[in-house]
Amino acid sequence: MTINIQYLHMPTSEAMNELLTHKLEKLGAKYDWIVSTDVYFKLENDPTGKNKVCEMKIEAPGPRIFAKSKEDNFEKAAAATLKDLERQLKKRKAIQAKY
Description:
This protein is α+β, with helices and mostly antiparallel strands. The protein has one domain: Ribosome hibernation promotion factor-like (Double Stranded RNA Binding Domain). Helix content is about 40%, strand content about 30%. It has helices at about 15-30, 75-99, and strands at about 1-10, 35-45, 50-60, 65-70. The protein has a four-stranded mixed beta sheet, with helices on one face. The longest helix has 25 residues, at about 75-99. The relative contact order is 0.18.
């Protein structure tokens, strides 16, 4: 599985890269049919303080799987996005098991 992490309009974080790569590799081991994952971290203007955005897109057989979350820090945003992706992957695996 190929992992591409990009930081838009902000400095990169090696610690975040390592953490996310580790978690995505575990996900890739569980769902071996994942081809690649694109991750985007962005800062948005939001008066509520939840301006840290994490978007993830998974390339796999069938339609793309996408998740996005906004939180007050990037770790929370990444965790929420990963949780949503895992839920979608479980659904996809259940559908594939039927056929």
